[in-house]
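Quick one, tokens below:
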């Protein structure tokens, strides 16, 4: 009798554990979609390795861009996006219904702000690359 109660308690604990873990994972995925708008570096790197024609936006300064950038990335400093400066000529190179990957030095405030701005401009699949170009270079990837 005690063994069957112990088995039931053990089974109930396992079910509870997996239920809570799954709920937390789903909540974190929703949280990331709404708040961070980011993509993990390893996922971006994998996508890039499978398709070098991704839409990539570098939000650093022109000097930073000239010192080395991800091949194929276009430059649009976040300061230009935030100011009243007309950036439509650069943004016209991007398709709003396709994914756009945005990076800065380390995947920090600049790329996050730019991602939010692009989302408000209708780029619903805009994502900042966590780790930015620093992680890109540290991973041994090429720059131009």
């Amino acid at each position: 009798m005690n063994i069957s109660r112990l088995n039931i308690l053990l089974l109930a604990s396992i079910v509870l554990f997996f239920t809570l873990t799954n709920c937390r994972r789903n909540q974190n995925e929703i949280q990331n979609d709404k708040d961070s708008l980011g993509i993990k570096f390893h996922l971006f790197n994998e996508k890039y390795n499978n398709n070098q024609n991704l839409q990539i936006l570098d939000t650093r300064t022109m000097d930073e861009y000239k010192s080395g950038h991800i091949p194929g990335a276009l430059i649009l400093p976040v300061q230009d996006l935030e100011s009243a400066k007309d950036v439509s000529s650069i943004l016209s190179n991007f398709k709003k219904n396709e994914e756009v990957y945005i990076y800065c030095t380390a995947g920090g405030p600049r790329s996050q702000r730019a991602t939010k701005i692009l989302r408000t401009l209708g780029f619903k699949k805009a994502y900042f690359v966590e780790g930015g170009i620093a992680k890109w270079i540290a991973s041994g990837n090429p720059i131009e």
